[in-house]
């Protein structure tokens, strides 16, 4: 009697959703580089007092407008302050304004869009007409107006940029909710008698949050760029607090003599904004269930 032959079948291990997400997110080298830049930015902002070689606010007029040297790698500004130290501390202002304004706009805008899309009717009309009125004003013009009215400063910049970004979140969330609201499981929840609040928090919002996360990531770069523009115009972070935009403004008068005074903070703005945009684009691909399902 012949022995029973065993046949082994190697079934490939199924990847979890998180593994698929990471694989799509890190599929391109440029995304990894961008994430590294953002990680470095966060580390520099957190540990600025220990990384900066000098106090960014200490003035030394006798040592003003010095070219790059061993003592001052990027030179000094018109008040004798170390440029590298001010760039390091300026990363704090950029991150605070970026994350705070995006969080403010995301929470308020998403809430308004959620309410308008779910309940509809006259409430939807009132909210969206107000959003249309805000959208009629270019965001940078609205931010400039609010920044001037609030008198600048860190809080004023956050509020100005946050209000300017609210309509984009409201419109996006409303569109997502109106699509999800017609799904069978939403109707089943309504028929079963659960409250509107529970239906929104448990069934509607989790299925609408992915595009909001992508938009928030993209808007981080926009907010940092807008903060630099407001600071350049004197409506951003108040001196002597370091901000990349105000540093570009202070240094452009000496472009022919010391171009690094403007180019160094300007390069930081460009790199950070590009990094956020690249990561946001990769995040959009990674959160697409159709793309993840093809892996």
UniProtKB/TrEMBL annotation:
Q: Does the keyword Cell membrane apply?
A: yes
Per UniProt, residues of the ABC transmembrane type-1 domain are: 91-280
Membrane topology field: Multi-pass membrane protein
Q: What is this protein called?
A: ABC-type dipeptide/oligopeptide/nickel transport system permease subunit
Q: Into which family does the record put it?
A: Belongs to the binding-protein-dependent transport system permease family.
Q: Which UniProt keywords apply?
A: Cell membrane, Membrane, Transmembrane, Transmembrane helix, Transport
| Record-annotated membrane-spanning stretches | 30-52, 95-119, 140-166, 212-237, 258-279
Which CDD domains does this entry report, sorted A to Z? TM_PBP2
| Origin: domain of life | Bacteria
Query: Which positions carry the signal peptide feature in this UniProt record?
Result: none
* Pfam families the record matches: BPD_transp_1, OppC_N
The record's subcellular locations are: Cell membrane
Family annotation (SUPFAM superfamilies): MetI-like
């Amino acid at each position: 009697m012949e022995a029973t032959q065993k046949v082994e079948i190697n079934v490939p291990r199924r990847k979890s959703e998180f593994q698929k997400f990471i694989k799509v997110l890190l599929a391109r080298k440029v995304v990894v580089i961008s994430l590294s830049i953002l990680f470095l930015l966060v580390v520099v902002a957190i540990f600025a007092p220990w990384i900066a070689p000098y106090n960014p606010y200490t003035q030394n007029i006798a040592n003003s407008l010095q070219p790059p040297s061993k003592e001052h790698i990027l030179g000094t500004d018109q008040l004798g302050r170390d440029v590298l130290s001010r760039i390091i501390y300026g990363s704090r202002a950029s991150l605070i304004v970026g994350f705070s304004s995006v969080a403010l706009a995301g929470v308020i805008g998403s809430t308004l869009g959620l309410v308008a899309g779910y309940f509809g009717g006259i409430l939807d009309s009132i909210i969206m007409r107000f959003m249309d009125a805000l959208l009629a004003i270019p965001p940078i013009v609205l931010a400039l107006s609010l920044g001037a009215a609030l008198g600048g400063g860190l809080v004023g910049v956050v509020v100005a940029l946050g209000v300017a970004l609210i309509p984009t979140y409201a419109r996006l969330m409303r569109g997502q909710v109106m699509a999800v609201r017609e799904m069978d499981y939403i109707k089943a929840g309504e028929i079963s008698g659960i409250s509107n609040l529970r239906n929104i928090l448990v069934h509607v919002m989790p299925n609408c949050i992915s595009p909001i996360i992508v938009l928030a990531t993209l808007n981080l770069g926009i907010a940092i760029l807008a903060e630099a523009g407001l600071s350049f115009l004197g409506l951003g972070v108040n001196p002597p607090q370091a901000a990349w935009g105000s540093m570009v403004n202070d240094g452009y008068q000496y472009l022919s003599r010391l171009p690094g005074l403007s180019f160094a903070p300007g390069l930081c703005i460009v790199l950070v904004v590009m990094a956020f945009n690249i990561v946001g684009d990769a995040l959009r691909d990674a959160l697409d269930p159709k793309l993840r399902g093809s892996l």
